[in-house]
Specification:
The chain is an all-alpha fold. The protein has 2 domains: about 25-205, no CATH class; about 205-400, I/LWEQ domain (Up-down Bundle), CATH 1.20.1410. The protein is built from 14 helices and no strands. The longest helix has about 35 residues, at about 370-405.
Length: about 400
Amino acid sequence: MPPARIPVRVRMGARPVDEPHRASSQLELLFDLTFVVAIAAATAQLAHAIADGHALAGLVPFLQVFFAIWWAWMNFTWFASAYDTDDVPYRLLTMVQMAGVLVLAAGVPAAAAGSDYRIVTLGYLVMRFGLVAQWLRAAVEHREGRRTALRYAAGIAVVQVGWGLRLLLSEAGALSPSAGTACFAALVVAELTVPRWAERTGGTAWHPHHIAERYGLFTIILLGESVLAATRGVEGALEAAEISGSLVTVALSGLVLLFALWWLYFLVPAGEGLSGRRHRSFLWGYGHYGVFAALAALGAGLEVAVEQTGHGAQASPQAICYAVAIPVGVFLTLLWLVHAPVVAEPVVRPALLLGCVAVVLLLPLAAPSTGVAAVVAAIAAACVLLTALAIALASRRADHDLGEVSGPPGS
């Protein structure tokens, strides 16, 4: 069988929004893998902050770095859904963005430890440069979408100037920490505004099922990062002590918890929902920042929860349990909120979900008397129960719908 030929150049145009069997390309999968490195670095730094008893201080750098990771991934994902040509120029510009991700990952420890964002900003600018070049190419080759593409390129480029100025002012000592945080928030708002502004002249031809698959794959990556983080915690615990009942309990409970969250996420038919409600895609897409950040933060919490079974952490048992409970609560709440605009009927009833969230957030209060292992096990049990109820309700609903379609016996 002859090897597949890679086209040297294909005229860039909008891909059909109803293209059958649209799936992630090999290049997109490789692109995702580069983000594994950056997410792992950010999660590890947050875990160190939690273990040292400085969870709140470590949260701000984590959320800032994770925004850069998520936003660069999301922008590429939606662009690729509309304009992926998979030719040589497209591949090369995508690889430029991958290089930027790796540069950003290299700068995460300095950003978390000393608020040194030089390398992180450089990596982010490299990623965004690659995307601006892609939009400019789309503007040249796709006449129907030229105005939208030029707006994207101009908007992204202008905001990158803002990031560069922020870095220069920080290096010159002209920005206090509070002013730097305010400047960061303003630039984040500017970044989020660019797509809304650009698409006023016409929307891009993204594929709903392809987008749903891409978000699902990124969710799996984050769940895998949580498994990796918990594994690091096991290694740290075993270096300090032998296998104990608490270690086994926390490790197994963490794994069961991740399985339950995975099950809950994929119960929601996002592709069909996005197909029928394209105008609500911004709420769905932007809301996933919290969903993804919660999963990444959960990995850090599980790492500390496992590791503390081998040696005492500076953080209190209650703080460690909240480092697990809060991300779980945020994930469950946002999972419902982001899918509500695109799904006709929620898979998990809001009352059940919010009840589970309340239980999860109350459980760490028992940590001083029961210990971390018991609380993590209880959190996992609550999520498993929620998953079981959601599956049962979804099955009952499917049987009811099937009965309505087929009609009564003899009809």
